Amino acid sequence: MGTAVLTKRLNSRCSRGSSSWGDLKMAKSITETSPRLKARITGAFYLLTMLTGIFAQGFVSDRLVVSGDAAATATNILTHKSLFQLGFTIYLIEMACQIAMTVLFYYLLKPAGRIVSLLAASLGLTGCIIKTFSRVFYIAPLFVLGGAHYLNVFSLEQLQAVALLFLRVNEQGAGMALAFFGFYALLTGYLIIRSTFLPRILGWWSAVAGLGWLTFLSPTLGYRLFPYLAGVGLLGATALILWLLVFGVNEQRWKEQAGAAGEWRS
Question: What distances in angstroms separate CA 247 from CA 37, 112, 197, 241, one per listed residue?
Answer without folding.
Answer: 10, 18, 11, 10
